[in-house]
Design brief:
heterodimer; A: 114 residues; mainly beta; seven-stranded mixed sheet; B: 108 residues; six-stranded mixed sheet; five-stranded antiparallel sheet
Chain lengths: 114, 108
C-alpha cells in the first residue's frame, strides 16, 4: 500500500495568484497523478507526473496553467497558476503502488479562489 | 459517450436492504476494474477489485461481464456506515478512468 500526504490541506487564494500543492508518498512509486474534483462531481485527471521528464497532460489542461514537478519517485508538486474562481476545486494527488497495482489517493487540497 | 458510466443515483435505502450498482465502460481493451468508495469531503479509497470470475468480500459482491462491458456491485444487509459515493473505475495499462459515482444513503 501507499500513504500519501498533501500540503496544504486547504487554502483561500486571491485571483491572479498561484498556489503550489505538494504531494509526498511514503514509498517509491512509478506512477503519480494529479486529479481535480469539483463539488458533487467525479475525478478529472489533470496529468500524469513523470519522474525525470515533463508531465503528460490530459485534454483541456496545459503546462502553463498547471506546471508539475516530479523530482524523484516519492514527491510531486502541482502549481495552479494565475488562478481564477473557476479553479476552485479539490486537487488530489494519486499514486499507483503495490502488487498488483492499486491506486491510492492523498487527502486532497481544497482550494477556494476569491 | 462517457468512458465509464454509472447509475446516476442517489439510492436511498433502509438499513438491511440489498442494493446494486451498475457500471458500463466503453474501452473494450480495459484490463482492470475496481470499485472505490468516497465519503463526503474525503478522498476515494479502494473498496474492492473486480475479477473476471466475480468476487465477494463480506457483504460486498462484484461482478464483471466483459462481453457486455459491464460491472456491478451488490451490497447486502446495508449498514448506515455504507452511506457514501461509490465510484466505478476502469484501467487500461496505467490509464485509470473514473465514473461519476453513485451516491448511496442508508437510512435507519
Amino acid at each position: 500500500s501507499a500513504v500519501i500526504s498533501q500540503k496544504p490541506s486547504r487554502d483561500i487564494c486571491q485571483r491572479g495568484t498561484s498556489l503550489t500543492i505538494q504531494c509526498q508518498v511514503d514509498s517509491q512509486v512509478t506512477m503519480m497523478f494529479w486529479y481535480r474534483q469539483q463539488p458533487g462531481q467525479s475525478l478529472t485527471l489533470i496529468a500524469t507526473a513523470n519522474q525525470g521528464s515533463e508531465a503528460t497532460y490530459e485534454s483541456g489542461f496545459v503546462i502553463d496553467k498547471f506546471p508539475i514537478s516530479r523530482p524523484n519517485l516519492t514527491f510531486s508538486t502541482l502549481t495552479v497558476s494565475n488562478m481564477s474562481p473557476e479553479d476552485s476545486s479539490i486537487y488530489l494527488c494519486s499514486a499507483l503502488a503495490g502488487g498488483p497495482l492499486e491506486q491510492y489517493f492523498g487527502p486532497g487540497t481544497r482550494l477556494t479562489v476569491t | 459517450r462517457k468512458e465509464v458510466e454509472q447509475d446516476p443515483g442517489p439510492f436511498n435505502v433502509p438499513e438491511g436492504a440489498t442494493v446494486a450498482f451498475n457500471c458500463t465502460y466503453s474501452n473494450s481493451a480495459s484490463q482492470s476494474f475496481f470499485w472505490y468508495r468516497q465519503d463526503c469531503r474525503k478522498e476515494p479509497k479502494l473498496l474492492m477489485s473486480v475479477y473476471s470470475s466475480g468476487n465477494e468480500d463480506g457483504r460486498f459482491t462484484a461482478q464483471l461481464n466483459r462481453a457486455s462491458q459491464y460491472i456491478s456491485l451488490l451490497i447486502r444487509d446495508s449498514k448506515l456506515s455504507d452511506s457514501a459515493t461509490y465510484l466505478c473505475v476502469v484501467r487500461s495499462n496505467n490509464d485509470m478512468r473514473f465514473g461519476a459515482g453513485t451516491r448511496l444513503t442508508v437510512k435507519p
